[in-house]
Prior knowledge:
The strands form 6 sheets. Strands 11-10-16-7-8-15-12-13 form an 8-stranded antiparallel sheet, covered by helices on one side. Strands 20-17-19-18-22-23-21-24 form an 8-stranded antiparallel sheet, covered by helices on one side. The N and C termini lie far apart (80 Å). Helix content is 21%, strand content 27%. With 414 residues, it is of the alpha+beta class.
Amino acid sequence: MQSAPYGTGADFFLFWAFPFHVINLLFPAKSPRFRGGLPFFPQAAFYSSAPRLFAPSGTASSHSRLAFSLHRSNTRPPPSQKRNRARARLHSRMVRVMPSVRGARSGCASRAAKDASSRYLPCRHGELSPVFFGSALTNFGVEPFLKEFLRLTPAPLPRKDAASGELVDPCSEQFSGFVFKIQANMNKNHRDRIAFLRICSGKFERGMEAFHVQEGKNIKLATGTSLMADDRAIVSEAYAGDIIGLFDPGIFSIGDTLCTGKKHVQFAGIPTFAPEHFARVTQVDTMKRKQFVKGMEQIAQEGAIQIFRDLGSGMEEVIVGVVGVLQLEVLEYRLKNEYNVDIRMQSLPYEHLRWILNDPDELDIKHLDLTSDTRAIEDMKGNPLLLFGSPWSINWAEQHNETLKLSEFGNLTF
Length: 414
């Protein structure tokens, strides 16, 4: 085999999972050595494995070649035509190569080749991550990616009914779903609020009635919305596994269940993390109290923050609990830009939060023997809690108040 008259000085250029559009970036069309952005290596062969980067001149490799090679040609077709041909050849290679790649993992490549259905199991079990090559800018490889993604994605799985413990079949005729996210002010012009619902079973139809388990009454689902980036579309029908947006006038909360049929189901709520950072938040302009209260309540219902207040006090001053301090910055930014409210924020030296399980009639919280770094508060529903500055303060409260019953935050649903 003769050496390359020009180029890298190698007879073989080993190519392993390297897309043509990346080569176009590395070797632009203006380079005098390459035409149309594609490198022309004489007898440049592509191998199914890559034991070394280059094979020396005058030697042949024992590895099996893929049935694909590039040869020098005296004719010079237009660059666009050459790119289209190269893309077509690459696509044909991807179609032939990808089935073996999808099922490849240590010790199971041959088994996956024999059993076509098992090729998707490593991906679904989280043992293998599929890799796709393409370019959204030139619309190359997008359709194969979407088709393969649909094949790799598992079907909707059954979800357990928290009340009965039974699994709800996604193919059931009875509609059911749960709210997993709430977002306010998605359209600033209309100050709308969207509750995102994940359908677990049955079929959603525009204008249908469903039972709101937490509210204990039937509500009409007038419209369903599908959102993609900034685009919105009205959804007339949706099935198990789909996610739709419902207009929320303030009746939905994260974890709520909607269902139809005589037998109502209720899915388990989404766990709530205990806040670790606390701050006192007050409004600068008392004339904007309405906007301040609305903004705090809506952002809290989204799950971004948790708000508390001193026993028997109003909303003029609230205590905000968050998992990370960045959420406090997000709160201040959103109140300023979405509700036009300026706030003052002061950090508080508390780290632990506990529910008080005692009945209010049997325990007077104001007469508890507590340390100076302990504070009695309540949530927006009036449930009492205690803020502690250290674990030592928690032990003190339990030892000096024998009838006091405490529980970690997030374990209870009122």
